[in-house]
What we know:
The structure is a single chain. This protein is mainly β. It has a single domain (4-115), classed as Deoxyuridine 5'-Triphosphate Nucleotidohydrolase, Chain A. It has one helix spanning 63-69; strands at residues 4-7, 16-17, 25-28, 33-35, 40-50, 55-61, 71-73, 78-81, 87-94, 100-102, 107-115.
Amino acid sequence: xxxxxxxxxxxxxxxxxxxxxxxxxxxxxxxxxxxxxxxxxxxxxxxxxxxxxxxxxxxxxxxxxxxxxxxxxxxxxxxxxxxxxxxxxxxxxxxxxxxxxxxxxxxxxxxxxxxxxxxxxxxxxxxxxxxxxxxxxxxxxx
Length: 142
């Protein structure tokens, strides 16, 4: 799949795969950002994407940054719809106990292009019964 990119910052680095079989691409920061414990900051990628119709971008924290330093994406998963043409931004939060510095050129998040499944809802009077039924939180055991 080909994704068109528009450079919005001269220091922007094209997203890259970390390994040959990586599912997600790494995003790179275009400026230095300090995150004190509890801080929420927007990290800029320096790119605008043209995502093909029927697809979207899924953005997650990098596992190493999350595990080792406590920096996560604020809304768990960032979503970029195919009709968005602005800069790819990621809201990050430091849930750790120490100051974290993300420097220009650092990998700060990861993204994947995914297929959107468009849904039409159909209202009905009854749903097909199952053995679980309406059993919710904790209904299947511990």
